[in-house]
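To assess whether the prediction recovers the assembly geometry, we first specified each molecular entity separately, as shown.
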Amino acid sequence: MKLFKTNVSALFAAATLFSSSLIVVQTSFAQTTGKVVAPSSLKTPIANRAISESEVLSAQKGWGDALVAISTTYDTKGIEAARALAEKVIDTAYAYQFGPVLFKPTLTLAPQTFRTTRAGALAYFVGGDPNFPMDKGFALKHWRKVEVKNAAIFISGDTATTIGNVIFTDKDGNIVTVDKTWQYFKDDNGKLRIILHHSSLPYTAK
Amino acid sequence: MKLFKTNVSALFAAATLFSSSLIVVQTSFAQTTGKVVAPSSLKTPIANRAISESEVLSAQKGWGDALVAISTTYDTKGIEAARALAEKVIDTAYAYQFGPVLFKPTLTLAPQTFRTTRAGALAYFVGGDPNFPMDKGFALKHWRKVEVKNAAIFISGDTATTIGNVIFTDKDGNIVTVDKTWQYFKDDNGKLRIILHHSSLPYTAK
Amino acid sequence: MKLFKTNVSALFAAATLFSSSLIVVQTSFAQTTGKVVAPSSLKTPIANRAISESEVLSAQKGWGDALVAISTTYDTKGIEAARALAEKVIDTAYAYQFGPVLFKPTLTLAPQTFRTTRAGALAYFVGGDPNFPMDKGFALKHWRKVEVKNAAIFISGDTATTIGNVIFTDKDGNIVTVDKTWQYFKDDNGKLRIILHHSSLPYTAK
Amino acid sequence: MKLFKTNVSALFAAATLFSSSLIVVQTSFAQTTGKVVAPSSLKTPIANRAISESEVLSAQKGWGDALVAISTTYDTKGIEAARALAEKVIDTAYAYQFGPVLFKPTLTLAPQTFRTTRAGALAYFVGGDPNFPMDKGFALKHWRKVEVKNAAIFISGDTATTIGNVIFTDKDGNIVTVDKTWQYFKDDNGKLRIILHHSSLPYTAK
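The predicted structure of the complete assembly is given in tokenized form:
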């Protein structure tokens, strides 16, 4: 439990540091000659908007930790606390504040399949919105563990896309496996945000 | 029938023009002053790797036209002709020649859910590959019409992502609707290629 | 005079709208079928981070207008007003708040040739900084007109680069021509910011 | 001498491998769980179009090595061999085959300041083109050493830009320092190509 709390904190830290942050500014050894020079003179300031694989894996882990955190909060503190946390998670991990998000959650039904607005995402995770009457709250299903198994990753530069399985385990040990695609972009503060999220139950031949 | 033939031809034209093509080089009126000058002196050469919305819509239409073409070829000329066409379509519309593609077709079963290789994509579309014994050939299902209804589009620059419904109609008027995400990147020849394709049947509450 | 004031206002408007703005969210007609449907159902939400040519030309014009505005402010209201305006221009048009900027101004001398920090940019434009003792203030040279003649433009997606001549005319009609490269990126609010600026006097054979 | 020959060979190797190459496909350890699994099942295929800092530094070094190679070839084998090598270097290191390149060489004179075509680049490096009568051949100036000192680097994803000094030393020990900006993009084969090159002599106050 401690562990994911640390991770969720890290997730939120990025948001609260918003105003003072940078595009992942690095310093590095960039002279191409072999001459020995004092270390300080070797550092080249770098503004790097490219996404690395480790940033992608960290964003995936952050999403899973956040889902477990909402579930656990619901079980221990009730729906209001869970909803408040879900709002924070959505504002931190998704890109709704910049425009529409391409979100097809696992269990939505037509004609509300796609949740391009923040309200639609929140309703999916914690339910209770009369505008989305079929939503029961996916994050309220007592999840305790989220495992990501990537099948392939595409890093195009300042966006990155993953596809693979995500395996959810609830408090009673029940397991649900989904096929999931996420696409992230790196925002001006160097943080990955979900701009695309397509989740679906595996096809079962009849 | 004429219509889609033209469209499929256009799709292949991009591939055959490969060697002489450019990064969508435009000429344009780029001087910022209001002075009247001779048109010739106004043209600024532009190399443009950004993807436009109309390029995205055209790529979607090309995919649908190609699927109908494979189905119709199968019905009129048999499996060998259909397979040959499917290979052309895959090589023209997808990005397998550059690396793994993030492809989760509608009807694949674990443990072969994700088709990151060209062989896996071909097997899905036309079947007949002993390495993918559960594949029956999605493109052989007598499709006659493909309609795309986008729910949202994200253009990140030289990649673009769409999410929405795709509605397939076969020769008997049967209709199948899927939830579909495509991500394209613009290659060095200015052509959009599918790097991500996640398709799933709509969720149905039990 | 009226004219550039409008333009400079537009430049600053982008900054003040900061908190509520989006990634250039568009609505558009994105269905690929020819069926007649009600206009409202045709609109697809689009988040577009790609840079268009017109956005590039507008950013170039904004820079020229801002330089003339600083010069005119200096001539009519003095150095303090000019410096305050220059700070606004730098914060609005450049990307220093996100990290280092690749700025080589026209008239800087070694070892202070490159101005990767905001302080270095401000000193170049309005002088008066003891840390940059060779700077006399390029924006204080009574400029009244700035004309951009692009030789070529490269749009890579969410960044764009231009190269060409920029011609400055001062209040006495003196003209200076420079060779200039600008690279912009589109920030999370849909605004172009200068991340690279290399300016140099034309080479003159001896 | 051996050393740069190796480097130049590496530069050309990328071009000759053209047909079989990929978008820098990596395999990596991408599962986010801590479970011990067999190494083979841990590898996620990755298509990575992002540019790393080391790729940038390697491209810079390749350019310097190529310039010294042309100079040395000219001194030992004459102008025809030097021109042939220069053509190879331009086709390998620049992006002219995809469209216009934003190239402002150090010593060009108006009205031929900007060399957006391959012919203009070749004339600059080895001269002898009646269409560019003022070009004497920058690469024929007996260069023996090229040193790059970056002031700052901007990596936007699949393009990267550098600014700084480049110091040229000829066979007699004469030194020329220039201010130089390069922008690269990663092509479909994973190779960096110069799309922007702005070089200028340092400003000298009169």
